[in-house]
């Protein structure tokens, strides 16, 4: 007994049970093999494609990640394009911030608070802050935006 995954020309999928592999062919030849849904005679063995995760879009940033037996070049080309656009956008954001925002290092919270209170001239600053400091800033009504992770510069890796 052999079981085949079958598919008709209207893409109905069903299982076919046969005594042996030749039985499938002879049933097809005698027009005995029909789709149980639409009665179509155009039934063929389903080609089993490698299973791809339906969530491939949501894991965009985890690429390049080779799936089982799938070369990376088989990735949906629009995802790749979107990913590289995102990368260059992030690079620009970081470039802009690095050249236009004053780096205050770990004094970020102090500086932001001083400016907020009017003790210091308003300035665009960047720096680091602990979760506790950020909470303190939020309590004072100061908004600090976390920067997205800087993309890896591939040229520097080599
Ligand atoms: Zn059908």
3D structure, described in words:
The protein has helices at 21-29, 77-100, 108-117, 131-140, 154-157; strands at residues 2-8, 13-18, 43-45, 102-103, 125-126. The chain has 158 residues and is of the alpha+beta class. A three-stranded antiparallel β-sheet has the order 2-1-3. Mean pLDDT is 77; it is low at 53-74. Helix 3 runs parallel beside helix 4 (131-140). Strand 1 and strand 2 form a beta hairpin. The structure holds zinc ion (ZN). Zinc ion (ZN) binds next to loops.
Feature tags:
158 residues, alpha+beta, two-stranded parallel sheet, 5 helices, 5 strands, 13% strand, rod-shaped, binds zinc ion
What is the mean predicted local confidence, pLDDT?
Answer: 77
| Major pleated sheet | 3 strands, antiparallel
Q: Uncertain spans, ≥5 residues at pLDDT below 50?
A: 53-74
Number of helices: 5
Going by helix content, strand content and strand pairing, the class is alpha+beta
How many beta strands in the DSSP annotation? Answer: 5
Q: Rough shape? A: rod-shaped
Strand order of the largest sheet: 2-1-3
Give helix % range.
25-40%
Radius of gyration, CA atoms, in whole angstroms: 30 Å
What is the string of SSEs from the N terminus onward?
EEHEHEHEHH
The distinct bound ligands, ions and cofactors come out as: zinc ion
Per DSSP, what share of the residues sits in E-state strands of 2 or more residues?
5-15%
Please report the distance between the alpha carbons of the first and last residues.
Answer: 56 Å
């Amino acid at each position: 007994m052999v079981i085949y995954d079958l598919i008709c020309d209207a893409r109905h999928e069903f299982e076919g049970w046969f005594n042996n592999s030749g039985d499938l062919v002879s049933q097809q030849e005698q027009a005995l093999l029909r789709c149980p849904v639409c009665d179509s005679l155009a039934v063929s063995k389903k080609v089993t494609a490698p299973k791809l995760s339906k969530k491939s879009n949501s894991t965009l940033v985890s690429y390049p990640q080779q799936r089982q037996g799938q070369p990376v070049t088989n990735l949906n080309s629009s995802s790749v394009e979107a990913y590289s656009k995102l990368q260059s956008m992030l690079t620009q954001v970081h470039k802009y911030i690095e050249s236009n925002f004053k780096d205050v290092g770990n004094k970020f919270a102090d500086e932001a608070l001083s400016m907020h209170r009017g003790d210091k001239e308003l300035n665009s600053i960047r720096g680091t802050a602990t979760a506790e400091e950020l909470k303190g800033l939020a309590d004072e009504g100061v908004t600090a935006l976390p920067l997205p992770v800087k993309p890896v510069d591939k040229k520097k890796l080599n």
